[in-house]
Amino acid sequence: MIDASLQTASILFAIIGGTAAGVLSLLLWGILRESPFGTVITLLTLTLAGVIVYHVFLIIAGGESVFLDTLRSAMHTIVAIFLLLVIATHERIQQSISGS
């Protein structure tokens, strides 16, 4: 069993680190909104938020549940969409470079 103070520190670290990463990714999205990577950054931000929420609930719950399984499945789906979007964006950039 995890010590209560260690569990509290882990939860606080996950929330603070996740919030900082989320804010920085939103700032980057604000800068790159008009570029081809704007949509990729948006999806990456959503994935990051899902991973943060999943880990906080995993630490709090201390075990597996239907909610955590559903959240993990949704995160994997978002990661797959993110990768497909990155590949499509890369192909579009390559075609625009070779077409010019």
Which short descriptors sum up this protein?
100 residues, mainly alpha, 3 helices
What would you say this structure looks like, in words?
The chain is built from three helices and no strands. The termini are far apart. The chain is mainly alpha-helical. Helix 1 runs antiparallel to helix 2 and helix 2 runs antiparallel to helix 3 (66-99). The protein has helices spanning 4-32, 38-61, 66-99. It is elongated.
What is shown here, in short?
Helices cover 87% and strands 0% of the residues.
Structural class: mainly alpha
Instruction: Report the biggest beta sheet as strand number plus sense, adding barrel if it closes.
Output: none
- Residue windows where pLDDT falls under 50 for at least 5 positions: none
SSE run: HHH
Count of alpha and pi helical runs: 3
In what range is the share of β-strand residues? Answer: under 5%
CA-CA gap between termini: 61 Å
Q: What is the CA-based Rg, rounded? A: 17 Å
Number of distinct beta strands: 0
State mean pLDDT (0 to 100 scale).
79
> Which overall shape is indicated by the principal axes computed on the Cα atoms?
elongated
Helix content: over 70%
Reconstruct the topology from this structure.
Layout: H1 4-32, H2 38-61, H3 66-99
